[in-house]
Specification:
The protein is 0% helix and 47% strand. With 373 residues, the protein is an all-beta fold. It folds into five domains: 45 residues, no CATH class; 79 residues, Immunoglobulins (Immunoglobulin-like, Sandwich); 69 residues, Immunoglobulin-like; 73 residues, Immunoglobulins (Immunoglobulin-like, Sandwich), CATH 2.60.40; 87 residues, Immunoglobulin-like, CATH 2.60.40. A five-stranded mixed beta sheet has the order 28-35-34-30-31, with no helix packed on it. A four-stranded mixed beta sheet has the order 4-10-9-7, with no helix packed on it. Strand 30 and strand 31 form a beta hairpin. The relative contact order is 0.08.
Length: 373
C-alpha cells in the first residue's frame, strides 16, 4: 500500500487508513509469474466546521436584519446550514437569512458536512418592546387654561402638532389648545428604537353666567335672583340676606344696599364670577291702579299696592258727590265697585290712602279711579 501516511500497515490484504486530508491510496497485488495488478481508492476527508453565529444583539421590535455568521474553513463549500427557530427567519436553511424581531430569541446555527461533520453556535437577540414609552392619561382643560403632558422611558421626544405647546421636544411640555386636540409624541430610546403615543386634550365649554347689573327693591321685599348659566355649582357671597348660598337662584332680602358675588362652576370645573347690586329703598310706597272693571278677573277689585314696609291705616273711596262708598285698613282687601250691595255706576271716583312706616312716619296718597263696566 502507498503512500504509507496514516496507514497502520503497508503490506497485506487489509490495512486501516486515518488520513487528515483527502488522500488517494494505491494497492499493488503481486503473484509469481503474473503481472502486477494495481488499484486505487480515494478517501475524501471533510473538515469539521468551526461556527460563530455572531455577537449578541439588542434590536427594536419589528426590525429586520441579515445574520452575519462566520463558518470555518471558508474554502469548503459543501456545508449545509440550519437556523432555529426556523419561524424567525425568512430562509432558515441559508447561511445569512433575514431575522424579523418579534420576540426575544436564542438563534442557533447548525453547520453540517455531507459526511455528518457538524458544529453549532448560538446568538442571543433581545427585542426592545414596541410600546416602551408611557404617557399621561387623556385630560381636559377649560378655555385659556393649560395642561402638562408627560412621557417617560425615552431619551428624545418630539410632540406634534407643535401648536399651543411651550416646548415640543420636552418630556413634560405644557399645552393650551383652543379646541380639543390630539397630541402625538414620537420618542426614541437608548437603543435607537422609536415609539409613538397619543394624548387627547379636551377643551371643555367655558362657564357662563349672566346677571343684571343691579335691581331695586323696597325695604322688606324679596328679590329672586335668576341668572342664565350653564354651571351646576354655585357659591354666593356674602350670605347675609340670602335664602341659600349654593344654588343658582337664591332669594335675596337685604336690609341695606348689597353687592352679591357668585362663583359658578361647570361639571368640568370651569369657573366664572359675576355680581349683582341690590339697591334697597328704605322708604315705603303706596300705589293704586287708575281703573278697574268689577267682576272681571284679575281686575275685579281695586286695592292698594304696597312697596316696602308700611302699615295701612285707611283706604277710602268717594263718589263724585263726596260720599264714602268704601273703606278698609286691610292691605289685602279691595273695593268691588258696589256700595251696600248695590253696583255703583261707571265714572270717576276719588281715593285717599293713609299708611305709617315702622319708623312712625305717616304718609298719604290721593288720586282718581275710573270704574268701567
Amino acid at each position: 500500500w502507498s503512500p504509507a501516511t496514516s496507514l497502520t500497515v503497508t503490506s497485506g490484504l487489509a490495512t486501516t487508513a486515518t488520513p487528515d486530508t483527502t488522500t488517494t491510496y494505491a494497492v499493488v497485488a503481486s503473484f509469481p509469474g503474473c503481472p502486477d495488478s494495481i488499484q486505487k481508492i480515494t478517501i475524501t476527508v471533510e473538515p469539521v466546521p468551526t461556527v460563530y453565529a455572531g455577537p449578541d444583539q439588542t434590536v427594536c421590535f419589528g426590525d429586520t436584519f441579515r445574520m452575519q455568521p462566520a463558518v470555518m474553513p471558508t474554502w469548503y463549500n459543501s456545508f449545509s446550514y440550519s437556523w432555529t427557530p426556523a419561524g424567525a427567519f425568512d430562509q432558515p436553511s441559508t447561511l445569512q437569512p433575514i431575522f424579523q424581531a418579534l420576540a426575544n430569541t436564542t438563534a442557533t446555527l447548525t453547520v453540517t458536512s455531507p459526511a455528518g461533520c457538524t458544529a453549532n453556535d448560538a446568538v442571543e437577540i433581545t427585542v426592545v418592546p414596541a410600546d416602551f414609552i408611557t404617557v399621561s392619561a387623556d385630560t381636559g382643560i377649560c378655555p385659556r387654561d393649560s395642561a402638562q403632558l408627560r412621557a417617560a422611558n425615552g431619551i428624545s421626544y418630539i410632540w406634534r402638532p407643535a401648536f399651543y405647546i411651550d416646548d415640543s421636544t420636552s418630556a413634560t411640555p405644557f399645552v393650551s389648545p383652543v379646541t380639543t386636540t390630539n397630541y402625538t409624541v414620537y420618542a426614541m430610546n437608548a437603543q435607537g428604537c422609536s415609539d409613538t403615543q397619543t394624548i387627547q386634550v379636551t377643551v371643555h365649554p367655558a362657564a357662563v353666567i349672566t346677571l343684571a347689573d343691579s335691581a331695586r327693591i323696597f325695604g322688606g321685599e324679596r328679590y329672586q335672583i335668576s341668572p342664565a348659566t350653564n354651571a351646576v355649582y354655585f357659591s354666593w357671597f356674602p350670605p347675609l340676606g340670602l335664602t341659600e348660598t349654593d344654588i343658582s337662584n337664591p332669594v335675596a332680602s337685604p336690609d341695606v344696599n348689597t353687592r352679591y358675588f357668585v362663583r359658578a362652576t361647570t361639571e368640568y370645573g370651569c369657573a366664572v364670577t359675576d355680581s349683582i347690586d341690590l339697591l334697597v329703598n328704605l322708604d315705603s310706597y303706596l300705589d293704586v291702579p287708575n281703573a278697574f272693571t268689577p267682576g272681571s278677573a284679575p281686575n275685579n277689585t281695586i286695592r292698594v299696592v304696597r312697596r316696602g314696609e308700611a302699615v295701612l291705616k285707611s283706604f277710602a273711596i268717594y263718589n263724585r258727590w263726596g260720599n264714602k262708598v268704601f273703606e278698609t285698613s286691610d292691605i289685602n282687601a279691595g273695593w268691588d265697585g258696589s256700595f251696600k250691595g248695590k253696583p255703583q255706576p261707571m265714572g270717576v271716583y276719588v281715593y285717599v290712602a293713609e299708611a305709617v312706616t315702622p319708623s312712625g312716619r305717616k304718609f298719604t296718597k290721593r288720586g282718581n279711579i275710573t270704574l268701567l263696566r
